[in-house]
Backbone:
């Protein structure tokens, strides 16, 4: 009964939050893809766009329609994380893992947004759960044929969500090769039939990339993993973010879980979780040494270690014959809950009431920077979009010429599309995104030469359009958006005359 009560309260809270908070930049970006339905996209495969298209066709271009599929798949991720943890260990560990998914800054907050991650995470954990059914040591084991036929479909769908899904396939391979009783499974046709099915299911990725000269593959497998040079400092910065994302006591448990799995490698449970963790760990824990990183890239791998961390939490960690850690003690539990509560107060309360600028004025004489409050990024775009359309009509009425609408970066381009509900917004920048890939393919910018433009920027990215595109002149007007009594966003409308092209 306590489990049911906690989940019910949490679910209602998350539902209320998801329905009452506007879109962040990447959410708007992914939603905008559904206005130009394709087999795949520059930044990610097509699954997020296809699901957005279905949901918004039913519920309209609303927060409900846009976030619905992510909310559903995030909930399913929790369900199957629970099932996998309970199958491997017990209900207590399952409860531990589910609460981390609900309340840690990394998983808890990320589970709201319209992004590839919630859908991909579901296929990731569901596929791991299916694979476990073929090796579990009881009479509930599934047949090899059934498991690999299902995996062929789910792995293919996962790849259509995010390329990282391939790391799980390597994890399956590492487990089978390192576990003699199951190594013979590789000699049967079924794993290879599964690979063939997965390849067929993810053919949209290949077909789109072939048509557009492989931009998605070049970006995902080369562009974002090279060019920054070796840096220990960057790796340490990444390592520090992991403590913030998962909270220090939880991440210490996760680090302990890695060593614990190595020590207990002969135990099928820990071998299974460690092997599925290993490929992503090898890639994303070393990535920051050599290239720029995103803190959440290692998240799928870490999910398996949270299950081991839950086991340690309830059973302790013994090293070198000594009980070095007693995580189930009252002090450890209090430290986890204290950090969780503090972080979640600072994450969620600003969405209800903007208290941070008031707190800042009490402790500092320096001006408050609205960019320091993450919640501000979720507000103001629909108001700004209405103002932009109003300004466009005014210019059209005064000059007889209707300016085309534009932005500078992919983030502001996406939010401008969301705010105006106009999918023809142009991105005036050479930085490569899905927008620029399609604009180049369709010669969009060439058709606009000689026209005037109305361009939207914000205080987050205070760009001057003349630095990015050639115009005769630009004139700026400002719009300030307030939440209750506090300044939240400052938008800048630039009226620029005679577009001549984007600068190199």
Residues:
């Amino acid at each position: 009964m306590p489990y049911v009560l906690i989940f019910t309260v949490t679910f209602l809270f998350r539902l209320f939050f998801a329905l009452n908070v506007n879109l962040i930049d990447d959410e708007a970006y992914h939603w905008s893809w559904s206005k130009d339905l394709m087999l795949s996209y520059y930044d990610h495969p097509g699954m997020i766009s296809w699901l957005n298209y279905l949901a918004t066709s039913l519920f309209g271009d609303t927060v409900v329609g846009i976030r619905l599929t992510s909310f559903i798949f995030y909930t399913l991720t929790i369900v199957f994380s629970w099932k996998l943890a309970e199958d491997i260990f017990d209900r207590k560990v399952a409860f531990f893992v589910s609460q981390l998914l609900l309340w840690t800054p990394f998983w808890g907050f990320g589970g709201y947004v319209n992004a590839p991650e919630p859908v991909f995470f579901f296929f990731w954990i569901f596929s791991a759960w299916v694979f476990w059914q073929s090796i579990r040591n009881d009479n509930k084991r599934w047949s090899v044929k059934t498991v690999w036929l299902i995996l062929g479909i789910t792995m293919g769908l996962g790849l259509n969500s995010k390329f990282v899904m391939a790391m799980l396939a390597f994890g399956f391979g590492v487990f089978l090769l390192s576990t003699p009783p199951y190594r013979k499974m590789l000699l049967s046709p079924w794993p290879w039939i599964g690979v063939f099915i997965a390849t067929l299911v993810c053919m949209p990725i290949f077909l789109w990339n072939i048509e557009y000269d492989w931009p998605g593959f070049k970006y995902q497998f080369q562009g974002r993993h090279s060019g920054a040079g070796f840096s220990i400092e960057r790796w340490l910065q990444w390592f520090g973010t992991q403590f913030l994302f998962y909270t220090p006591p939880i991440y210490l448990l996760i680090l302990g879980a890695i060593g614990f799995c190595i020590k207990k490698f002969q135990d099928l449970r820990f071998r299974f979780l460690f092997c599925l963790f290993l490929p992503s760990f090898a890639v994303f824990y070393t990535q920051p040494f050599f290239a720029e990183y995103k803190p959440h890239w290692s998240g799928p791998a870490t999910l398996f270690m949270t299950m081991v961390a839950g086991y340690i939490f309830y059973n302790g960690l013994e090293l070198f014959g000594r009980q070095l850690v007693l995580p189930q003690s009252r002090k450890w539990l209090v430290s986890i809950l204290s950090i969780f509560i503090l972080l979640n107060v600072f994450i969620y309360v600003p969405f209800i009431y903007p208290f941070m600028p008031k707190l800042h004025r009490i402790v500092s004489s320096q001006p408050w920077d609205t960019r320091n409050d993450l919640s501000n990024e979720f507000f103001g775009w629909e108001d700004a979009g209405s103002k932009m359309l109003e300004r466009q009509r005014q210019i059209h009425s005064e000059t007889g010429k209707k300016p085309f609408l534009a932005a500078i970066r992919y983030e502001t381009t996406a939010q401008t599309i969301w705010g105006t509900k106009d999918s023809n917004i142009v991105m005036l920048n050479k930085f490569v995104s899905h927008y620029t890939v399609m604009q180049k393919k369709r010669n969009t910018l060439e058709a606009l030469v000689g026209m005037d433009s109305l361009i939207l920027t914000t205080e987050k990215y205070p760009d001057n359009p003349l630095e990015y595109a050639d115009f005769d002149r630009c004139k700026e007007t400002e719009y300030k958006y307030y939440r209750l009594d506090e300044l939240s966003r400052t938008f800048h409308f630039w009226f620029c005359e005679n577009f001549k092209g984007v600068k190199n």
